[in-house]
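Can anyone check this?
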Amino acid sequence: MPGSPKTLRLTTAQAIVRYLANQYIDIDGVETRICGGGFGIFGHGNVPCLGEALYPMQDALPLYRGQNEQGMGFAAAAYAKYHLRRRFMFCTASAGPGTANLLTASALAHANRLPMLMLCGDTFLTRLPDPVLQQLEHFGNPALGLNDAFKSVTRYWDRITHAAQVIQSLPAALATMLDPADCGPAFIGLPQDVQGWTYDYPEAFFARRVHHIRRQAPDPVEVAAAADALRAAKRPAIIAGGGVQYSRAVADLTAFAEAHNIPVIETIAGRANLVHDHPLNIGPVGVTGSDSANWVAERADVILCVGTRLQDFTTGSWTAFAQDAQLIGLNAARHDAIKHLSLPVIGDAKLGLRALDAALSGYTAPADWTKSSQAERAKWNVYVADNTAHGNRPNSYAQAIGVVNALCGKRDRIVTAAGGLPAEVTANWKTLDIGTVDVEFGFSCMGYEIAGGWGARIAQSETEPDADTIVLVGDGSYLLMNSDIYSAALTRKKLIVLVLDNGGFAVINKLQNNTGQDSFNNLIADCPTVPEPFAVDFEAHAAAMGAVSETVANGAELEAAFKRAKASDRTTVICMKVDPYEGWTTQGHAWWEVGTAQVSDNASVRAAHKDWESSRAKQRKGV
């Protein structure tokens, strides 16, 4: 028919791959493919059709073979975080347990608001061969399956039941992953028969398209109300969250703080918004923060919260701020901007800071307030210097952090997650350059460290190949997920991994003791089902996966080993035992709400409960 659009006859899987390969994003004037490739483990649910579609596209969409689907998802999340949510990776898994392994990673990406696309096998749409291998049968609901579990841990979910659906579903998934407010993981279930079904797709669907991240301008009325509150403030403060970096608003935040002489305190996700020696950087705030930032938070009367979801470790379970402090929520996401009766400024951080700056022309915070805040930071710096120094005392996380901090490059990327290391890194790390710290504490997910390091290194090698990715991991997380040491060695994506062995889950043992309980089932030595405890030979284990590895006895040996690792072009694992009881950072903490036993036969548990509850009076009740 004259004027009819040209079409291409493709399978569903081929259409998905071709579409992804033609989506680009403008980053600083350079058009780059949005999808950097994928992580995949093939099985019967994805290799016949999706595998066939990916094979000829290896140059455009490189596929990294994972060792564990959960690790693939962690790597994809770290890749997206490195690229400030402007690029993503897909993960493909077979039907059944392979896909189920992605649930934890999807939850991590959801909690951290990170884009990740999951293309996972599903049972046959026709149901002719049912029940099939690995199928979960729900007798009263045959349409319900494993993939439905992802609905609670994704921002976008769909199941392709006809090849034509791809035309609507893929752009919707991509729009979600690129949305500043709703960003998160997208899941697309691919029934095994539908993957191979064909459709005459319009050629226009596969045309090269360049995307841009939307910047929403804030409402002038909201800006005016926020500016009025700040002008009236006697003790203003800024909380800088991870959204500052995602908006690429670091320079604007710095300029705003400098123009108005307002102290800045950082969240865990916002670590590395300011370098450590910037005069307005008062330190990290909250449960795992600094005395200086918590001093500011407790006394501030107006707090501008930029790009943060105000997680409990930031707010001290809402005890870190004065009861009558007025919060201002500058955030692309309405849900975050209105928390605790904040004055909302809903919009992009960069545009919002610029609008507030114009509205506050001529205003500066009282000099004595800022000067006092800086004096508190100076005290904290003295504490950190002593805390991270090594010498005649037991090995600690803080000492290892101090060694790495002193020797690493300005653009080296630090990756850690879960256990005691997020607190120790957040409190003790001196940021050398903007956006170089990845402390995964949105989901606080054990196992992210090494897999996330691999994903971060893949991203880093695209733009900063001469920098290093440095992973700090405890023995507990290492034992949970370590196979991506092998992935890094195989793909020649060099990592430097520090395994800090404290004999178990020492930070939870500390919490157990702090709530009045005896040590039980956390440290290996305290497990009642372990007749004869013994240590893992992490050095030998890492070497078996292709890494250069060595064990050091103290900070001085760690210095020498780290220098060797920096000079090497191979993945290196350095192991050091640290004390499970001594050497924890004891300062800089805020109250954190945990459920303690209200009744117990143990007097120390009762005493701990009473002591814990004594701080509850400071907790804001949602206002």
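Reply from J.R.: I decoded it. The chain has a mean pLDDT of 96.
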